[in-house]
Amino acid sequence: MIILRNVWKIYKLGNNKVYALKNINLKIDEGEFIIIMGPSGSGKSTLLNIIGCLDKPTKGEVYIDKIKINNLDDDGLTKIRRDKIGFVFQQFNLIPVLTALENVELPMVFKYRNVDDKVKRKRALKCLKMAELDEKLANHYPSQLSGGQQQRVAIARALVNNPKIILADEPTGALDSKTGKKIMELLKKLNKEGKTIVVVTHDQELAKFGDRVVYIKDGEIKDVY
Length: 225
Ligand SMILES: Nc1ncnc2c1ncn2[C@@H]1O[C@H](COP(=O)(O)OP(=O)(O)OP(=O)(O)O)[C@@H](O)[C@H]1O
Ligand SMILES: [Mg+2]
Description:
It is a single chain. The protein is an alpha/beta fold. It is about 35% helix and about 30% strand. It has one domain: 3-Layer(aba) Sandwich (Rossmann fold), CATH 3.40.50.300. It is built from 6 helices and 10 strands, in the order E-E-E-H-E-E-H-E-H-H-H-E-H-E-E-E. The strands form 2 sheets. The chain has a 6-stranded mixed sheet, with helices on both faces. A 4-stranded antiparallel sheet has the order 2-1-4-5, covered by helices on one side. Bound molecules: adenosine-5'-triphosphate and magnesium ion.
């Protein structure tokens, strides 16, 4: 499903080079739940962004669902992201002037231009249900929701174009530990329903939700367990 072969990410800052990823080799099978852990600055977000086609490696090959992404231009990368990947972020990244339901509908606007609004609405409601948000909250604005509820909306939004892969960078980082566990339980449920999931976290407590933990330090994979 996801293959990284000899992947390097090198940032140039003036005369300095930052080796954010050093020769990463990683294979993630369809239906796996992977946790990426490691200290701050170790390259976790860089790795997730490359898996998510938000960024390209400096060297090495990346395959997403058998498609080699190295040769794709920006439009090609955008299409892969839109069709295959759902993103979840630490700060939820909801649009404040849109309701929960409208936030979830938004990604469909770009993918299903010709689909009837009612069909889109129904699909968005279904995804809010999958994310276990109380139906009564669908017309609330983000500011009227708790952090955990906002993250459920963000997860519903990630599901709406029916991606095979969900990527989450510190999805529980802005939540208390009890709410964070609930969000991980939700991701686990979605994994059991067939999604391939990769979660970056600092929290050792959350490692148990994964099938495998990839531990990265100074841009290198140190351990997989
Ligand atoms: N756009 C960039 N330009 C230059 N250096 C960068 C850039 N993005 C990241 N880096 C550097 O690459 C390294 C890895 O960063 P990354 O954000 O992947 O770490 P991280 O493991 O996600 O850290 P954190 O846990 O704090 O989120 C860091 O040294 C960082 O400073
Ligand atoms: Mg990070």
